[in-house]
Protein 1
Amino acid sequence: MTTSRRSGENLPKRAHLHKIFDEYLSQLGLRQTRQRKIILDAVLSSGRHVDAETIFNEVKKIDASIGLATIYRTLKMMTDSQILVERHFGGDRASFEFADLGNEHHDHLICNQCGEIVEFFDEGLERYQDLVAKNLGFNLKNHKMELFADCLASENCNRKNLK
Amino acid sequence: MTTSRRSGENLPKRAHLHKIFDEYLSQLGLRQTRQRKIILDAVLSSGRHVDAETIFNEVKKIDASIGLATIYRTLKMMTDSQILVERHFGGDRASFEFADLGNEHHDHLICNQCGEIVEFFDEGLERYQDLVAKNLGFNLKNHKMELFADCLASENCNRKNLK
DNA sequence: TTCGCTGCAAAGGATTTGCATTCTA
DNA sequence: TAGAATGCAAATCCTTTGCAGCGAA
C-alpha cells in the first residue's frame, strides 16, 4: 500500500512548530528573536519544499532589513532542531522541508511536466530495498530515492500552475 | 536477482572509449588534442567514480601545464559524447562515471564506513518502483536511488583502503 | 591559415564567515 | 550587562567564462 501527500497538503501546525523551535532554542541557551519568528512563519506559509531564496523573498515582504545570511543561519538551525530536513534535488540549490515529526520516512516523486513533488511511502518498496542491500552484503541504514515521472491523467498534474 | 559491480571492476576498454570519443569529436568538427587524450586516459585509470579535482591531480602527473578549466570543459564534452554520466551524490561536488554503453541502468549503494560505491541492478526493484508510480497516477520515466548501508562482514568493506 | 583549444584569471552562484553593532534574557 | 544574533561585505567552494595566444587540420 502506498501513502502519499502532495505539496502543501497536511502542513504541520504552526503553533506546534513554533513551540518545538522555541524549546530547542531555550534548551541551548539561544535566543528567540524577531527575525527567527518571521523566518519560521515564512517557512510555514511557503509550502512543503522551499529554498533559502524563496524564504528570503517571503521574509522581505515582512521586514526588508533581514539579510540572506540570517536566512541561511536560521534554516540551518531549524534543521539542527529537527523541524526541517535539508534535501538536494537539483544538485546546486538546497531545498528544505518539514521533518516528519514522529512520523514515517518518505520518498519523492517529481513530475516531469510541472515539477510537482509528491511525497510517498511504500512499505513493500522499503522492504525490497532492505533485501537488495542484504543480497549485496550490506545492512541498509537509509536511502534516498526520487522517481521522475509523467502524469497519467491531466488532473493529477498541476501543470496549470505553470505559465 | 541482483547484479552488482564494485568500484574499478569491469572497466570499459580503453581503446573502445578513445574511439567513441574521437568519432564524436570529428563528427562535430572538433579537434583531438594532447590534453583530451591525457584527460581521457586519466579518467580511464581512475576508477568508476571520479570528480574534476581527482582527474586534475592525475593529469598533473603527466602534464602539469594542463589547467582545471580544461578538465571541466573536457569532462562536460565527454558527458555530451555519452561516454560519461554526471552524478551528484554529495550535493556539492559533481561525480562522473562511465555511461553504460549499450547496457543497463543501475543504482548505487554507498558504504557508510568506507564510502565505497557499489553499482547494482535489481529488476524486481525496478518493477516495484514502476508500480508505485502508477499507483500515484504517474508514468515512471526514470529514477535516482542511493542506498546508504553498513557492511555485514568486513571482507565486503574496503575500509582497509582508508587511513 | 583557419578556427577550435588552452591556460589564466576573473566571474558566477550558492552558502558561509568575520566583525562591529544591536538586542534578548 | 553579557554574550548571542544580525547585517553587511568579504570569503569560500565548485564550476564557468572571457580573452589573447597556441596549435590541430
Protein 2
Amino acid sequence: MTGVEQIDRQIVRLLARNGRMSYTDLGKETGLSTSAVHQRVRRLEQRGIIKGYTAVLDYEALGLPLTAFVSIKPIDPSQPDDSPELLVDIPEIEACHSVAGDENYILKVRVASPSALEELLARIRAKANVSTRTIVVLSTPYEQRAPAI
Amino acid sequence: MTGVEQIDRQIVRLLARNGRMSYTDLGKETGLSTSAVHQRVRRLEQRGIIKGYTAVLDYEALGLPLTAFVSIKPIDPSQPDDSPELLVDIPEIEACHSVAGDENYILKVRVASPSALEELLARIRAKANVSTRTIVVLSTPYEQRAPAI
DNA sequence: GTTGAAAACCCCCCGAC
DNA sequence: GTCGGGGGGTTTTCAAC
C-alpha cells in the first residue's frame, strides 16, 4: 500500500464532510478537472481507502434514543473468543472493537429503551458466553467528525 | 417529532448502506417513483433525520492506524465540565460522548502512532484540565453498521 | 402524497495531450 | 496523470391527479 498524496487527502476530507458532493464540485474545490477528480475517487475506492458511503442519521428521531458502550469478557478465558462472529447478526450492535485492557471487546449498541438494552445484554451474554460491563451514553456532543488528515 | 413511517425507514436503511444510491435505484427498491423518493429524502434531510452523508474510510491506509477510547474526568470536580467545547478544535477526536459512570466523557480518537497518542493525551489533559484513561483498539471487526430499524 | 414528463445537470467513458 | 467533449442517465422542478 503506497502513500496517499496531498490532493487525494483533500478529496477524502471533502467526501468525509459531504459524501454526496459531485465530482464537478470536488473539481472546483481541488482545482482539478471533473475527469481527473473522478478518476482519483475511483482509484481511492478501488484501493479500499474509501470503503463506501453512508447517511449520517439522527438515531433519536429513528426511535433508537439509547446508545451504550458494552465491554465484554469471556466467562471461560481458556476458550478462544469468537465474539465478533457470534454477535455479528445482532443488528443493535453498530460497532465491535477488539481492545487492549481488562476486556476483550467493546461494542457500541443502539436501542429503543432501557428494557430493550436489558434484553440485548442478555442476548449478548447468552450468544457469546461473556460477561458484560455497560456504559450508558447520556448525550453526544459530536460524532463522526472528518479525520485529521 | 412525529414518527417515521415504514417506507421512510426503508429509505433510511438503504441510504445507510449506500449513501450514494441514486433516487432511481431507491425508487426501484421501494416501489416508488423517482420523484416520490426524492421528495421523501428531502423531507428526511429537512427534518434532520438524515443529518448528512459521509465517506466510510480506511484509517489505516490514511496514516491513522491507531484508534483509542479516552475516558476523561475533571481534576477539579467542583468546576463545571465544558470539555466538549474545550476539545472541539482537536481534530484527532472523532467523537465525544457524555456518559453515565465514573467518568464524564468518552472520546474516540485516531492517531498515527503511540507517540502521537501520548502527545494527544497531554494536549487533552492540558486543554480540559482532566485526567484520562485510555483503551487502545487492536482491531475493528466491524463499525458503522446500518441501524436496526 | 404521488405521478409523469421535461429541462438542466451530472456521471462516465473515451481519445488526445 | 490530466484535460475536454459527448452520449446517456440522473437530478430537480413542475403541473396535474
